[in-house]
Amino acid sequence: MSFDISDLLEGWDYQPGQVVARRFVGKEGQEKVQLRVDLGILQMNATGRPDGRRPMGHESWHEFQLDRLKKHVEQEGDDDDFFLDSEACGKLQQESIQYHHRYICFFQLEDFTAVERDCERNLRVFEFVAEYAETDELAWSLLQFAPQLLMMRTRARGTAAVKRKRFTEAVRVVEEGIEELEAFYRDNEREDLLENSGEITSLRFWLEEVRQRKPLTQLEKLQRALDEAISVEDYEQAAKVRDQMRKLQASDS
User: Fold this and answer.
1) Residue 14, phi then psi, degrees to nearest 5
2) Which one, of 166, 159, 52, 53, lies nearest residue 116 by Cα?
3) Which of 145, 151, 167, 242 has the fewest CB within 10 Å, making it most exposed?
4) Distances (CA, A) of 129 to 1, 26, 35, 43, 252
């Protein structure tokens, strides 16, 4: 057996600053995802834990900790005194990084449903850690990455809508994503980070791009014509356009 992966890399160049991914079915019949990195390839299962391992016989460290919590509540009657120490939080963070690599690949492969699935999985982990971490510092060590997840989930939902030419839906999705990010910073008393949030800034720029691609409604076209007529002081034309707008609004009511 040869350990040389040169054949796998041939013809599949690494592109700095770009996500280069591919999807295929492995020899055991399970779907895989590969990510080209500068020194080789990262390979992940397309479902379940990306590396295919089963920590402590569970699908993931998150599932293991949820099972711990369940048993604790069954024995004690509540979740008092249940906590996640630094080692537990570290394992959950490392595991979440695997899912991060995978949803980045899925986005490039335009599997937006899978992007949303993995983003929401990590968000549940971060919320779990926020509730049970031994210290606030441990909780924030994972929760600080939630804005990136919220942005990527919004990107996946919005891009899926744009691909279907549902621009009104895409605008709504992005607006809701921005509101969700703003609420995250406020709810976690991190308003100081809100104004400099790269995720919010990115979504605001994208929102303007989507709005520009959105076809104008008949009423919007008339409003633009009205603005142009007024700007050149063509009040006769402006009056005609206003009359058209009133008729259109009356027919829609």
Assistant:
1) -75, 135
2) 159
3) 242
4) 43, 34, 28, 27, 51
Q: What is the mean pLDDT of the chain?
A: 92
Average of pLDDT values for 28-50?
95
Please report whether residue 244 resides in a domain. Answer: yes
In a domain, 125, yes or no: no
pLDDT for residue 177 is more than 90: yes
Residue span of the structural domain in which 231 resides: 218-252
Residue of 163, 132, 52, 134 lying closest to 98 (CA atoms): 52
Provide the pLDDT confidence category of residue 1 given band limits of 50, 70 and 90.
low
> Does residue 222 contact residue 244 with C-beta atoms inside 8 Å?
yes
Position with higher pLDDT, 190 vs 87? 87
Place of tokens 């991060």: 100
Alpha carbon distance 155, 176 (integer Å): 11
Q: Measuring CA to CA, how many Å separate 160 from each of 105, 116, 182?
A: 15, 11, 23
Residue 248 lies in a domain: yes
What pTM does this model have? 0.84
